[in-house]
Design goal:
212 residues; alpha+beta; five-stranded mixed β-sheet; 37% helix; 30% strand
């Protein structure tokens, strides 16, 4: 990183505090892709109807859904929701801590799982018609946040260099020094190589779903 700064400040035809660099930094900030889309959607709470089905106990027309975690135990809430004249309502629900089992209605279900130091899992799934085992991913919140930071830093370095090169060429006709280009590319690639795997390995969701 120091080599990149020295190259940009010493060898570049335009100084770091020049108009070209200011344009490049603004472009990098505005162009940095947002990673918020990878986060789970906020849990939308809904009221339960009177006489809602209790998924914690066996019942006619329901199937056993065994819940497991790929890591630390997770507290899981499973709900069957439906539209009513008063809006979406919970028709059936159950809560347990993995490993555990709920007896669910074979329908579209809403699931939320949470645990200390893990990312919250929020998803919808079609409940199987036969007893099944659902295994949830155990995504580390700390590792995910680190991956977001490293990936964002790598993208910022790349965009800053690209924006600076474009702005410098536009304002003075000069090109980015080779040393700065190579150094920036190495730093950007290293940050991305460290950050992207953390995002991939710490996704939330279902690790596996198998019929018993």
């Amino acid at each position: 990183m120091r080599a990149v700064v020295r190259a940009l400040s010493g060898a570049a035809p335009v100084a770091l505090h020049s108009r070209a660099m200011r344009v490049a930094l603004v472009a990098a900030v505005l162009a940095l892709p947002s990673l918020s889309a990878a986060q789970a959607a906020p849990w939308q709470r809904a009221e339960a109807v009177r006489g809602a089905v209790d998924f914690n106990a066996p019942g006619a027309g329901r199937v056993r859904l065994t819940l497991e975690s790929a890591g630390a135990p997770q507290r899981v809430v499973v709900e069957h929701r439906g539209d009513t004249p008063r809006g979406p309502r919970v028709l059936g629900a159950g809560t347990c801590q993995t490993p555990c089992a709920l007896y669910v209605t074979p329908a579209a279900l809403t699931l939320r799982a949470e645990a200390w130091r893990l990312r919250d899992t929020e998803l919808t799934l079609d409940a199987p018609e036969r007893p099944s085992v659902l295994r949830l991913r155990a995504a580390s919140r700390a590792q995910w946040n680190l991956g977001v930071g490293l990936t964002g830093a790598g993208a910022t370095v790349f965009l800053a260099l690209a924006g600076y090169a474009l702005a410098a060429q536009t304002t003075s006709g000069a090109s980015l020094p080779t040393e700065a280009a190579i150094g920036g590319a190495v730093v950007s690639a290293a940050l991305l190589a460290a950050g992207v795997p953390l995002l991939v390995f710490n996704r939330t969701g279902v690790a596996s779903l198998a019929v018993e």
